[in-house]
Amino acid sequence: MGKRAGVRIIGGTHRGRRLKVPAGVEVRPTADRIRETLFNWLAPRLVGARCLDLFAGSGALGLEAASRGAGEVVLVEQAPKVAQMLEEHIQLLGLEHVKLHRAEALNWLDQGGEPFDLVFLDPPFRALLLPALFSRLSAKHWLSPGALLYFELPVHGELPALPPSWSLYRDQRAGQVRYGLIQRTA
Questions:
Q1: Is beta strand 6-8 parallel, antiparallel or unpaired with respect to 18-20?
Q2: How far is CA 9 from the centre of its chain?
Q3: Considering just the CA atoms, what is the radius of gyration of the chain in Å?
Q4: Do residues 63 and 89 touch, judged by C-beta distance below 8 A?
């Protein structure tokens, strides 16, 4: 792959497919070993699940979920070059159950919509968006009962206060990243 960023789908029907990321675009794909752990955690609940990848970036999380049997995947990405690349990946892989919304994540959440079973929250680390995201996801009823939210933080980052009826389900560290799952318990 050289110096150009890219991502590899590590499981499911598109296992081993390499997907490019446009040159000059800053994205931070979730590392393979973290994705492997995450999708091992999610395996019993992923098939047929309705998933939201809120800061899609490289598409590593949403496209991995689609490859592993998610029933519907919604990608939200605001950067035009990245959104175009995601659209190309969706078409290349023939993922008719994956939909892309070109929008800023917080504004998109303000619209309200159908609840999701799984939400991937991997915003830019320095943006500090998790409190606002938690608030909108909760207030706008974006989560089905028992839904799981995946998060990533810098390794020493603090997880913001969780809304009522949410609890930390799993928590792990790898390199400079803290990641885990939050569950909506009611």
A1: antiparallel
A2: 14
A3: 15
A4: yes
Alpha helix stretches (DSSP H) within 16-144: 32-46, 60-67, 80-93, 105-110, 130-139
Give which of 3, 107, 99, 16 is closest to 51, Cα–Cα. Answer: 99
Q: Token digits for 107?
A: 């504004």
Residue bearing tokens 């938690």:
134
Nearest Cα neighbor of 70 from 90, 47, 54, 93 is 47
| CA quadruple 112, 163, 130, 120: dihedral sign | negative
Nearest to 118 by CA among 42, 40, 11: 42
Please give the class, per CATH, of domain 6-184: alpha beta
Q: Are strands 72-77 and 98-102 parallel, antiparallel or unpaired?
A: parallel
Name the pTM for this structure. Answer: 0.91
Kindly list the domain boundaries of the chain, sorted by start residue.
6-184
With bands split at pLDDT 50, 70 and 90, how would you rate the model's confidence at 75?
A: very high
Which residue in the block uniquely carries the two structure tokens 């792959």? 1
Query: What are 118's strand-pairing partners?
Result: 51, 148
Q: Which residue has the tokens 């799993």?
A: 170
How large is the angle between the packed helices 32-46 and 60-67, nearest 10 degrees? 40
* Confidence band of 11 (pLDDT split at 50, 70, 90): confident
